[in-house]
Design brief:
The structure holds two protein chains of two kinds. Chain A is of the alpha+beta class. Chain A has seven helices and eight strands. In chain A, the strands form two sheets. In chain A, strands 7-6-5-4-3-8 form a six-stranded mixed β-sheet. Chain A has a two-stranded antiparallel sheet with strand order 1-2. In chain A, helix 1 packs antiparallel against helix 2, helix 4 packs across helix 7 and helix 5 packs across helix 6. In chain A, about 45% of the residues are buried. Chain B is of the alpha/beta class. Helices cover about 25% and strands about 30% of the residues of chain B. Chain B contains five helices and 17 strands. In chain B, strands 2-1-3-7-8 form a five-stranded parallel β-sheet, with helices on both faces. In chain B, strands 11-10-13-16-15 form a five-stranded antiparallel β-sheet, with no helix packed on it. In chain B, strands 9, 12, 14 and 17 form a four-stranded antiparallel β-sheet that branches. In chain B, helix 2 runs parallel beside helix 5. Classes of the chains: A alpha+beta, B alpha/beta. Chains A and B meet through strand 2, strand 6, strand 7, helix 5 and helix 7 of A and strand 4, strand 5 and strand 16 of B.
């Protein structure tokens, strides 16, 4: 019984989240999402347009679509191995918040262990372009697409970036995906 | 005849005094940008503003509602503005760790849910006080590194109720304004930079676009009418980063094209910047256009003087 409920929830999330990733009008999608949200709750508090996010428990759909609720908000992300969080957060007032790559602090010792200063500088310098590609992939995904399609788009677009940017972006994407635990 | 001249003279002097007073008086500007269905809140905010901010002898009160980024930009860059109160929604996701390389983009939203946060990157030095009454506006604008420490501000760090937040912002303003207010600068502020001309022509009426260079706001391309060529000149102070981003601030779901055909040029040379695009020419990005500098450093010639802030 429990596994049937879980399967139903995961299937609903997949349909809902796949719809979200297309560039459609927000209202129809958001009402569908809010109607379907369930309680794969992340351990935090969400009040109105603020939410505390702990990248903890989530439901991992079969197509690699990861969704979880933040109280009254909903995080939907296609957890690809490479392009990472092709995802959006929908808040309870229907505001859509984008997920983006952020600059890396040169003093971040964890990053310094894996990448050289030159590589970090190149990544930071191309951050705008990297996020532009990520948003483009997000906008091009339809409800018929899968993780494989998102990765294919990433592979076809990424060559405009420096190899260092690609390397860091893919590693960070994999780390983000690996933080989600299957419920 | 003499009996008529004296009253006329007095009237003339009085009118001249009034004109000069209002011409030189600084403005307190209240800008609300809430959605249409929040009209009751907007009405209450207007009432609070008129009750609490209209009694200053030396300051005029301006109230505008349904404000977009273009109007906000105008008042933040006006030499006559001394204080700005902005009231709108904010979107901010607090994360367990802010050191993550991927995270949610914070936004300050106008009444159409367009992100206007970056407009606060360019503020006239005559503005002594800024109140941004929106949920978590402190975190949103600090992330944008928008506001300097040189002026007093009211920026909530958590969720805020519009009317209460506005009253708190007004109390802080009234308590401190006459201690912090500086005499307004009455002459234009001149600086030096490399001139870039940006022109746009669209098939439809189009929104205004923020013109960004790194973490700086260079200017704004105003709203335009369909099939009308418009152009602005902006200035970059340093050659080390010549990437230009034009952004409408629209939500990811608003696919209306507000860009049309955009050209960047320096000294008449329009081949120095290239649109960041796919091989088929379609721009990368959603609701933004990124222009990468493809010329040589020597193609960007001498700096010239420009008016950074008007008087």
């Amino acid at each position: 019984m429990k596994s049937r409920i879980l399967t139903f929830i995961m299937a609903s999330f997949f349909i809902v989240s796949a719809n979200l990733i297309t560039a459609k009008k927000a209202d129809a999608i958001v009402s569908l999402i809010i109607k379907n949200k369930t309680a794969a709750t992340v351990g935090g508090i969400a009040t109105g347009t603020s939410a505390v996010v702990f990248f903890g428990a989530a439901a991992l759909g079969q197509a690699g679509v990861i969704t979880f609720t933040l109280g009254s908000a909903l995080l939907l992300t296609m957890g690809t191995a490479f392009v990472g969080a092709v995802g959006l957060i929908v808040l309870d007032d229907k505001t859509v918040v984008d997920i983006q790559y952020r600059p890396i602090d040169y003093l971040n010792t964890e990053m310094a262990e894996n990448f050289s200063l030159d590589e970090i500088q190149m990544y930071n310098a191309e951050l705008v372009e990297l996020n532009a590609i990520r948003k483009t992939i997000q906008a091009e995904m339809t409800d018929k697409n899968t993780v494989k399609d998102a990765n294919r788009l990433w592979n076809s677009y990424k060559d405009v970036l420096h190899p260092a940017t690609i390397k860091i972006a893919e590693l960070k994407a994999q780390e983000l995906v690996s933080q989600f635990k299957v419920k | 005849m003499n009996l008529l001249k004296k009253p006329m003279k007095k009237i003339f002097i009085f009118l001249a005094f009034l004109v000069s007073h209002f011409a030189l008086a600084q403005n307190i500007v209240v800008l609300t940008s809430l959605s249409a269905d929040e009209f009751k809140t907007t009405f209450r905010l207007n009432k609070i503003a008129k009750k609490k901010l209209s009694h200053f002898n030396d300051l005029n009160l301006i109230i505008k509602n349904n404000v977009d980024q273009e109007t906000l930009y105008h008042y933040l860059n006006s030499p006559l503005t001394t204080a700005v109160f902005w009231i709108s929604h904010g979107a901010y996701i607090k994360e367990a760790s802010n050191s993550r390389t991927m995270g949610a983009k914070p936004m300050l939203l106008d009444f159409k849910k367009d992100n206007i946060a970056e407009i606060f990157k360019l503020i006239h030095p005559n503005i002594s006080y800024i109140g941004v009454i929106g949920c978590n506006s402190s975190q949103i604008l600090n992330e944008e590194q928008s506001l300097s420490d040189e002026r007093m501000s009211y920026l909530p760090k958590r969720k805020v109720i519009a009317t209460l937040g506005f009253k708190r912002a007004i109390r802080k303003f009234k308590k401190n304004y006459y201690q912090i207010a500086k005499p307004p600068i009455r002459s234009p502020i001149i600086n030096e930079g490399f001139k870039i001309k940006i022109s746009r022509i669209t098939k439809n009426d189009a929104k205004s676009l923020k013109i960004l260079n790194g973490d700086k706001l260079l200017g704004l391309l105003p709203k335009s009418k369909a099939h009308t060529l418009q152009a602005v000149e902006v200035y970059i102070k340093e050659k080390k980063n010549l990437k230009i981003v034009l952004s409408s601030g629209q939500s990811a779901f608003d696919s209306e094209d507000n860009f049309g055909k955009i050209t960047l040029s320096h000294n008449g040379n329009s081949s120095l910047w290239k649109l960041f695009a796919k091989p088929n020419g379609e721009a990368f990005g959603v609701n933004e256009r990124i222009f990468l500098f493809k010329g040589d450093s020597q193609d960007i010639e001498q700096k010239e003087e420009f008016i950074e802030f008007n008087n």
